[in-house]
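Q: What structure does this chain adopt?
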Amino acid sequence: MRAYHRNKYQEKPLYPCEPWNITEDSFSVETNHHNEAIFSLGNGYMGMRGTLEEDYSGPDYTSTPGMYINGVYGSEEIIYPEEAPDLPRQSQTMLNLAKWSSINLYINGEKYDLLQGEVSDYSRSLDMKKGVLLRELTWTSPGGKKIFFNILRFLSQDKPHLGMIIYKFKPLNFSGHVLLKTRIMGDSTNYHHLRNKRELVVKDRGFQGEIEYIIQKATSTFIATGMACRNVLIPSNEGVIISKKHLSSEKGLSVEYELNVEKGKEYSLQRYLCVYTSLDLGLNIDFSELENKLKNKLINNLNIAVEMGDKNLLKKHTDYMAEYWSDVDVKIYGDLALQQAFRFNAFHLLQSTGRDGRTNIAAKGLTGEYYEGHYFWDTETYIMPFFLYSRAEIAKSLLMYRYHNLDKARKNARRVRLDGALFPWRTINGEEASGFFMGSTVQYHINADIAYAIYQYYNTTKDKDFLHNYGAEILVETARMWIDHGGYIPLRDGKFCINEVCGPDEYKPGVNNNCYTNYMARFNLQWAIEVIKKTAEENPKAYRDLKERIKLEEEEIDAWQKAADNMFLPFNKELGIHPQDDSFLYKEAIDVDAIPSEEISLVKHWHPLVIWKYQVIKQADVILLMLLLGNLFSLEEKKANYDFYEPKTTHDSSLSPAIHSIIANEIGYMDDAYNYFMMTARLDLDDYNNNAYQGVHTACMAGSWLALIKGFAGMRNYDGKLYFNPCVPRKWKGFAFKIKFQDRQIKISVKRDKTYYKLITGEEIRIFHKGERFLLSAGRGIEKSNF
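A:
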């Protein structure tokens, strides 16, 4: 492992190491962008960056407010410097919605501003256990007025269309008049990508009683978004509220309260939020009618929220979080920094993942606009496994997203003149959104990644309904694509070859017979054959319906079998490795350690033609294959491939270190395993790559879970059987976690010398520990030696 990477995580953590909290103990303009991403909140449906409620007098560029709804996007024509036929024509960019969280306070004309006056006892803390962001501080105005603030916000996990800010303040050394202003502003812009920064335009805004609402519409996609807020001031008796004004402008709405406050008394503004979009209503009607229905939906649901009250709304949210942590939490003994990181990663994965079968999880979640809010293969290969063993219903919803966009994947295949379906590399709406085909469409392996995810889902849940009625159709269409894209090449002894592809290593596009792609394509074909046979036997009606619907012929299945049996699987006997592709071994070798650290990542500093000519790898490629289809390769093969490819890998993608950690673990390279694991776990918290301000790295976050569970716990799921090969790094005392598997819940506690297995719920099961098969019965624990 390069010292450049190893030294990063050895630096002092940016935040105090606490088991359940991420805490900022002073406000800094310099770190605000990063903190806005770290302190983001979300519930899978919507997300908001951790922007302060109040304005402050620092430069505008030190803050990037963001309010996003999963699946709401704008689009523009992709402009190519040189044209070619059948390229994607429209971009997709997640849109920044109206800002609803703006609250400003004035004392005798002095505006509360963190950069004016004096701030003491400052603390902003992300409470991951409860899923809330809490800020406390005392502010002394330039004129000497001292006031205490306690500000809590959350976006409800239990009721994903709702959110809330509870804004409390207490005058400490004065009584008198205070002006309190709340705003919902429709002039938000996108900060990246879109040429038309103001893609969302305000179509309607106003007040209905105490409710303020705003309706926006995307000018390109015509998606309508609605947001409504209502303030509840406590106490609200006649002596407190001197006046209240409802103000409207072209930019949005504001409510102004002139208050008479008393020294030492606490006041609370409860600001309720409700959000809906035209996508939620699913209506194909004219906009004026849609606008009315959207407004009514907002107002009715917001009134229900206010009737529930802040305590009930918060309790339902925290109850959801408690249940989530009961299943998902990983306990690490002896390393508080790592414990904090694991919970932070698991927290953001929950916040960012769509759960309705129509949305997915973006590379940056709902925490920033980088990568335009696009969904990638990250979902199936990295993120879905995290949910699969704790929240299988979320894993299923991610696969259903692919099914619901299968017709668009079929159209995408036709775009490049292929049969079947080709899932897009970058997307929100199911269509290909990347204009750089050498880094997107060429990565055909996404089809096999989705097929593999279906395999993992079925073997973990035994969900036959999904397999027969949804999974089978995806597998047929992805198999059809491989048969059309590949071909039998005489100079390869008539083997079935797949040319002009790119594997996971994006530094080698447009190659022939990428090893990962060929192996995974063969798996895709074999799994499709097995599922079609299984569906025919177990659900004849579903099989008949499928066969008729997509015109499936027996000859096709025979063709899949022939291609799978004759797939070209590269292997170099002299080196004892699997060549990454036909040309990799014939490229010039390069000393990756000699590359100056300031030139990492290469894609930002080297011309593509320079990168392509060398044996240099962006991220795990053959090494990833050694994990996913690990039962096909011997330990010696894994070691030989790791020894060959690891020194050539720059890890310019955050997806890479976790996979290297897992394979290093398996082959006994414990220092590499630990170093790559640490590089993964605190990537965003400690901002190793200086880019977390753009949004967190969701796949890397899931990768930390993979590196622990599949690395140090050594868990594998082959053909519906569980295998464990646990070990504990020298710096830890142990770790413990739970998994759900085939209607069972199992707790695994790993110590240095032994591992304890307990079946919490479900029927007895046989599992493997270091190659030994044993029976685990309900309510009983079994201890196994790690040596």
